[in-house]
């Protein structure tokens, strides 16, 4: 391994990445936008008026596409794809593995002994049948029941990747249960659209016919040289370093954040942006992040379903482009100890088909009351379903990041800014029942009316909050960098849909008692503010004081994935999903089972890899160096007298003893780790197994790591087998 390490470092010194990987950037990126997407403009060129109208109605109104029209769309899609050099098509879907999946079929169809054509029908467009036997299912189907179906999602445009036409699709079992992230997300989006549109039409704007949730994600990642990456078996297998002493310089000087982007990295970013433009991913921001070799890119806001698809596509695209530039991309939330990990902030809002952002104040009291309605209801939803939101971002890899100084704590709280908090405090004082003319005037002029100027100055962002209002959107900051955004977006839109439904019922009930519409709204909002105040927090989320204060407020601190997932099957959450038609009870239990199994599997893999590296790489290396020291001591003893020898060999003798001590710690630690892993694997109950891996297996990692890191500082650098942190983080 030491040879592999030094060969990788030596090869790097001979590479000219400025020349070899230079990227020619177009004068206008806009000219490339959607070149490889079956976009609305492309549809106009290839579809009949009937087919174009049908697919647009499906996208905007959710209407069904008739089979004969689907045939027309399929032919048009095929003709467009063939003009781009495409030979195959695939239903592109997002199973519960956390990555995307695809099965490629050719357009090629023989129809006589020596003749063939390219064929693609409506039936082939609408449905495909991949083998579902090896995808996670949580016990929904038996292993021998292999059949699963993918079904076209017309609301997300088809695109071309290489020579393959990719058709975004949902994935379901033979018996109809969902086996992916997209299907439940679409249901949640439909639910919040219906609930929000109902409120807009009933109370604020009769012209609103559709409300679209929007998402703007921020993707953080690390770039590591491919050769150096291949020299680290822990990175290759687990996506993170399990061992490694921190370098003298990490991120202490804050010199990487927003610093000049290295040329090699810039070449990667340029090519990535070109590919993104061609695939309709509207990326606009790129910069260095806090940790060395850590970066971020972000797009403009899009409709949630499309944004989720684009993020999943982007992660695949990033890995492909990185490989071309001799990089390996790391999406793990905490690939390196001692420096910041990576997240994926999800910026969420609601937009109407009349062009309004429902989480942005307007220019008159009515629009500001609309803003307050959706703002307070969102806070109330997060308050009532905080544990479900926490479970949606839980994973083995995100556990390493949450609660550290680069990520929010596991306690779900909301930051709204001191000025807006003051507005809510004023609303909390609203009279119960009918309002006097004076109180109405005061509310409209001095409370609700001042919201725009308050938000204008309310620009400070609390980076320690997991759920922060940032002017016209909510930022969910606890999502992990490797996560599929669909899971947290499904929860977010589901809980807001449920809350808006309840709000509408309560307001209508008060109106029936004789209260005017505005009075009823103020009365309900007042009660919501009182109930939800305990999750509003403006201070330092990293502090111990907040953890104590949160406990006093009754907020849960679910620090680990098993803790968070134990709350997911609470009857309140099951009822929510069933009421909205997002999941059946069986699907909820299956997904919980899948997540628990994945957690246990990931920790088990990390434990096995750590044991392997410790026994087969670190210990032999340490013994090798120790033997050199022993030979040195023997030589000194032969040359010098006893008294002089003891003085001259003192440090070597001390190092020999110290190395033996660390080797012993590692050997005992590995034996304990493997025994604990074996014991945990034998547990049949998935939740108890996950708890065992969390509480009995993971804590043993540090003992082995600490001993290895101490040996790294003792052993000759030329003998050390593992590429060091300073090389991984500062080789560009």
TrEMBL record:
<dbReference type="InterPro" id="IPR040577">
    <property type="entry name" value="Gln-synt_C"/>
</dbReference>
<feature type="domain" description="GS catalytic">
    <location>
        <begin position="181"/>
        <end position="618"/>
    </location>
</feature>
<dbReference type="InterPro" id="IPR014746">
    <property type="entry name" value="Gln_synth/guanido_kin_cat_dom"/>
</dbReference>
<dbReference type="Pfam" id="PF00120">
    <property type="entry name" value="Gln-synt_C"/>
</dbReference>
<dbReference type="Pfam" id="PF12437">
    <property type="entry name" value="GSIII_N"/>
</dbReference>
<dbReference type="InterPro" id="IPR027303">
    <property type="entry name" value="Gln_synth_gly_rich_site"/>
</dbReference>
<dbReference type="GO" id="GO:0004356">
    <property type="term" value="F:glutamine synthetase activity"/>
</dbReference>
<dbReference type="InterPro" id="IPR008146">
    <property type="entry name" value="Gln_synth_cat_dom"/>
</dbReference>
<protein>
    <submittedName>
        <fullName>Glutamine synthetase</fullName>
    </submittedName>
</protein>
<dbReference type="InterPro" id="IPR022147">
    <property type="entry name" value="GSIII_N"/>
</dbReference>
<comment type="similarity">
    <text>Belongs to the glutamine synthetase family.</text>
</comment>
<dbReference type="Pfam" id="PF18318">
    <property type="entry name" value="Gln-synt_C-ter"/>
</dbReference>
<dbReference type="InterPro" id="IPR052725">
    <property type="entry name" value="GS_Type-3"/>
</dbReference>
<feature type="domain" description="GS beta-grasp">
    <location>
        <begin position="87"/>
        <end position="176"/>
    </location>
</feature>
<dbReference type="InterPro" id="IPR008147">
    <property type="entry name" value="Gln_synt_N"/>
</dbReference>
<dbReference type="GO" id="GO:0006542">
    <property type="term" value="P:glutamine biosynthetic process"/>
</dbReference>
